[in-house]
Amino acid sequence: xxxxxxxxxxxxxxxLYCSRDYAAAHGVPRSAAELAGHAFIGAPDDSPDSxxxxxxxxxVAEEAIVLRRDSIEGLIASISNATGLSLMSDFVAATDPNxxxxxxxxxxxxxxxxxxxxxxxxxxxxxxALMDFLAGWFAAGxxxxxxxxx
Length: 150
Known about the structure:
CATH architecture of the domain at 12-111: 3-Layer(aba) Sandwich
CATH topology of the domain at 12-111: D-Maltodextrin-Binding Protein, domain 2
Strand order of the largest sheet: 5-2-6
Radius of gyration: 18 Å
Helix content: 25-40%
CATH class of the domain at 12-111: Alpha Beta
Largest sheet: 3 strands, antiparallel
Strand content: 25-35%
Number of strands: 7
Shape: elongated
């Protein structure tokens, strides 16, 4: 929209995550070579083709897929219940202390995250302060986890 101004503040990649309980019971794979023997939560069979789905098809055995979910909420619930491993938005996973980052496959960022405001509000002190804070927070990488960190 022409009345909005903003800036791109981050790229959201998707990485492989499990819950703390799953990690304690089954270990944390650190690469695609370590996925054998792990349960996987996948996307529906009719999902549109994407780099993520191609990676899953190439690296996860069909019989390892124990459940298919078609929403972020469903993925979060299934991972949290220690059902298995799944690809998850790094941005979303960073808000959940139960998520354990296993590793980040190399299919690149999936989405851009933009910080937007209305043109008339961009110079309002409280709006400017929030925008500056969030831009700095993302620039410092505070939303990024390291493998194995909860």
